[in-house]
Amino acid sequence: MELSSEDNNLTEKVLPPIEQESDVELETTVKKYLRGEGADLETLKDKKLKTQLASREKLYGKSAKTAAKIEKWLLPAEAGYLETDGLEKTWRVKQTDIANEVDLLSSRNQYDIVLPDFGPYKLDFTASGRHMIAGGRKGHLALVDMMSMNLIKEIQVKETVRDVAFLHNEQFFAAAQKKYAYIYGRDGTELHCLKERGPVSRLRFLKNHFLLASVNKSGQLHYQDVTYGGMVASIRTGKGRTDVMEVNPYNGVVALGHTGGTVTMWKPTSQAPLVQMQCHPGPVSSVAFHPNGHLMATSGKERKLKIWDLRKFEEVQTIHGFHAKTLSFSQKGLLAAGTGSFVQILGDSSGGSSSHNYSRYMNHSMVKGYQIEKLMFRPYEDVIGIGHSMGWSSILIPGSGEPNFDSWVANPFETSKQRREKEVHLLLDKLPPETIMLDPSKIGAMKPSRRKEKQSREEIEAEKEVAIEAAKSTELKKKTKGRNKPSKRTKKKKEMVENAKRTFPEQGHNNTASKKRRIGEDAAAELPASLKRFARKN
Amino acid sequence: MKIKTLSRPVDEYTRERSQDLQVVFHNFDPSLRPMEKAVEYKRALTAAKLEKIFARPFVGAMDGHRDGVSCMAKNPNYLKGIFSASMDGDIRLWDISSRRTVCQFPGHQGAVRGLTVSTDGNVLVSCGTDCTVRLWKVPRPTLEDSSVSSENFIEPAAEYVWKNAFWAVDHQFEGELFATAGAQLEIWNHNRASPVQSFQWGTDSVISVRFNPGEPDILATSASDRSITIYDLRMSSAARRIIMMTKTNSIAWNPMEPMNLTAANEDGSCYSFDGRKMDEAKCVHKDHVSAVMDIDFSPTGREFVTGSYDRSVRIFPYNGGHSREIYHTKRMQRVFCVKYSCDATYVLSGSDDTNLRLWKAKASEQLGVILPREQKKHEYNEAVKNRYKHLPEVKRIVRHRHLPKPIYKALGIIRTVNDSKRRKEDRRRAHSAPGTIVTKPLRQRRIIKEVE
Question: How many angstroms separate the CA of residue B393 from the nearest CA in chain A?
Fold first, then answer.
């Protein structure tokens, strides 16, 4: 490493302009790997700690640079793209055109599976995108290996299935059935019946915490730890029945969309919501989170799609025109919205992370009778899975998947031994439910030191004045039927001013104490010398 | 129109034959790893707990002496052996791996006070209260040694009688001279029956002596008049000398930074000095509750081990004020000598209960051959634990040590005493004119003066 840095120092002086441009790009990626600002070492007084931290900061810089270089040169695959020339627009490109241009392996990912008998299908993918579980409303559950298009297991549970979700890997999945939620194993055996939750309408799994979150028909939110089966939290939301529930992958927070147009965010350790946002004038139809955790897309029945920035809780963009029944973000930030039998993919046309401009990227319209139930991008592939009323389909969306996977995070080519090892490691790294918070980077950070400085007397006086002014200027309600006498009004106003004054403690106490002492001394000074010993010594 | 979609051919991403290694891909992008800080914190907690589970520092005891062990010497050429001497004049060479005596060196009439080995490993020098210095020829370790359990008795190669009892001995690095501490500091040569050189200052006896590993002509001594003196053999008088408040029982030079020395003091703390500037200690290492009897540095120079009169052995970092580790057993009584093994893995302690004990330097270390993946995992655990060791849950686990009751109570009393002293000092300062009350830092407070 040291040799390469020396080489860099030599070559940096003689760089052609193209190299300099790529240096700028490298800097942005280095920033990403640095994960925030360095520590401010100037405020430290402890010299030993200062030198230790300085050397550590240097190491962080070095490792961020190496990681940026690896990203630039050593990653095996590159992202997909769809580039049109001249007048042609990207949203006019049809799936058949794409199939002509693309290789055989990718064109195998475009298909329609028609199962008209079993109702609208909901889908879920595992984290690596290799397996998919499809649940039809009329009770059909199918576990499919997507790479070989192999049907691993299908079962018919003979009652309504409202939602399906994978647990930590493809060995277990949960289905929300008519009365209760059930957990099944890979070969279709029913493992658990989760009776406590009641009739569940949505199921989601929090991977890092091994928590199965569900919302039921009466609007109760349940969190259950699937490793030992204990119910971690049951929260009564108080907002009535809701069908819209999503998990923010960045911080593990669950967002519910309510019929009043509010989106509330919950964590298992508190009975009150973390955040309540008024998103739409009418009911919220669907919510989706960007993988980086900063963006949230919501759609309402009034045919608007809104993009929110979650750091400031502000609206970034509104897209008019259609009522999106289901939304999904891809790993690369493409947003898919499904209405009726029409899928629209929106892409971020502005490059920066601060500004977002979602515009039309691609469209796909299916056969008129197919009503889209669920859209979900497949991880690590340029594919989106569509669950609809006549079965499920999959279409190609170039540029939506992350091209380079990390074998230790999610490996689509996992062997069974690797899967077992990974399960053990996941269990060892299982996070306690208290770590779910809006800003996950706060863990391990320093608490800001709260030093309550004593306010000077002038400051206190100023505050007091402000409070008295505020009390004086409040408008009293005009009462009728003879209760609005002027004498009563002035009395009430005086009371309010007195209340405002009472919150500030008396400033005169010190004065009186010192006054007493001074009086004592003066009295002592007046006494003749022989009687001085009888003067009060305070 | 240009279109490209992701397609991964299976043979590029899986291995060809089952004898091949599995194919592994890395992508260090932080967006693939949500909640990475929480996961790291959880791993730090697990690593701290695992360290405590695997912490089994005691390896074994070597038992054979009939009286308390007074001193030990290590042979830098032969890692497996250690010499030890007891209060009844019995000197033994132990084989650490089998924990058996290889041979004995009988001869001393009284307690043996000092033991040292020459740098080439051939000559063992011992001195005792019977006013003699004996030189022994160290037997070469042969392949049959470990299997043969017979104990050999070796005759001394030379025996020099002198006027007074000796307190300590140390051998020069890369030389033929050794120094003994007694009524005066005497420098001997292997072949001469009387000292070649002798130094004296005042009338007090010299208690301990240690040669500098970097500069072969410099040695440090401590005397019973509470002083620490540094002598240069090429000059006829002392180079530096300081007087402290309490006497120093033992001195050790840092093998990696030969200008620094650490002194084990009677008041329970160890003082690290820079040999060139002795008026202020560089660091004060406080954790023992009773007199520190012996001190030895690790060959890495980053840690040292101390043995104390309070029946415990502690390991300190070379620049830290508090100990990283404490070792104690119900059976181990007053520890008189400690040695850090030459491969920086073990710590040996010789105590009053006639046993030599072998401890691991890192209590939860896995000894033996470790696979590279295991090694990486250990390093990762160490690093993630160090990153989060300031957080309360992790700190509680990492810091936790079981202390014997007398030490625990004594530490509590010391803490109360220090707190009340500090409170009184603060109040005195608050009620006097600013600047009149000046407290000297602890590094200077314990040194009375520097004498030239």
Answer: 11
Residues in A 186-225 with any Cβ partner in B closer than 8 A: 208
Confirm if A303 and A321 have CB atoms less than 8 A apart. Answer: yes
Closest CB to B6: pick one of A208, A403, A429: A403
Tokens of B226: 């509470």
Integer Rg of chain A from CA: 32
Residue at token pair 């409040």? A474
Q: What are phi and psi of A70, to 5 degrees?
A: -60, -45
A96 vs B contacts (CB less than 8 Å): none
- Kindly state the greatest CA–CA separation across chain A: 120
Check A382 against B6: CB less than 8 A apart. yes
Q: How many residues does chain A have?
A: 538
Q: How many helices (H) and strands (E) does chain A have?
A: 9, 29
Indicate the residue type of A84. T
Q: DSSP of B289-356, one letter per residue?
A: SS-EEEEEE-TTSSEEEEEETTS-EEEEETT-SS-SEEE--SS---EEEEEE-TTSSEEEEEETTSEE
- Under 8 Å between Cβ of B35 and A205: no
How close is the nearest chain A Cα to the Cα of B9, in Å?
8
Burial A167-201 (b: 16+ CB within 10 A, else e): bbbbbbbbbbbeebbbbbeeebeeebebeebbebb
Interface of A with B in 461-490 (CB under 8 A): none
The residues, ordered by sequence, that sit 6+ positions from A120 with a Cβ below 8 Å of its Cβ are A136, A137, A371, A373, A387, A388, A389
Per-residue tokens: A2: 């040291």
User: One digit per residue, pLDDT tens: chain B, 452 residues?
Assistant: 889 999 999 888 999 998 999 999 999 999 999 999 999 999 999 999 999 999 999 999 999 999 999 999 999 888 899 999 999 999 999 999 999 999 999 989 999 999 999 998 889 999 999 999 999 998 877 655 555 555 678 888 888 999 999 999 999 998 889 999 999 999 999 888 889 998 888 788 999 999 999 999 999 999 999 999 999 999 888 889 999 999 999 999 999 999 999 999 999 999 999 999 998 999 999 999 999 999 999 999 999 999 999 999 999 999 989 999 999 999 999 999 999 999 999 999 999 999 999 999 999 999 999 999 999 999 999 999 999 998 999 999 999 999 999 999 999 999 999 999 999 999 999 888 888 888 888 888 888 888 87
Q: What is the dihedral of CA B62, B67, B72, B75, to 10 degrees?
A: -60
Residue A440 near residue B35, CB atoms below 8 Å: yes
The token pair that represents B298 in the structure block: 């690790």
- B-contacting residues in A 67-86 (Cβ below 8 Å): 67, 70-71, 75-85
Instruction: Give contacts of A88 with chain B, Cβ < 8 Å.
Output: 1
Contacts of B124 (CB under 8 A, 6+ apart): B73, B83, B91, B105, B115, B116, B117, B118, B135, B136, B137, B138
- Mind telling me how many Å the CA of B227 is from chain A's nearest CA? 30
CB contact under 8 A, A250 and B35: yes
Of B3, B38, B41, the CB nearest to A82: B3
A16: left (phi over 0), alpha (psi -120 to 50) or beta: beta
Q: Does A1 touch chain B (CB under 8 A)?
A: no
CA count, 13 A, side-chain hemisphere, A159: 9
Q: Which residues, including other chains, have CB under 8 Å from residue B418's CB and lie 6 or more apart?
A: none
Beta-carbon separation of A444 and B40 below 8 A: yes
The ipTM is 0.81
Interchain pair A77, B6: CB under 8 A:
yes
Distance, in Å, from the CA atom of A186 to the CA atom of A151, rounded to the nearest integer, reads: 11
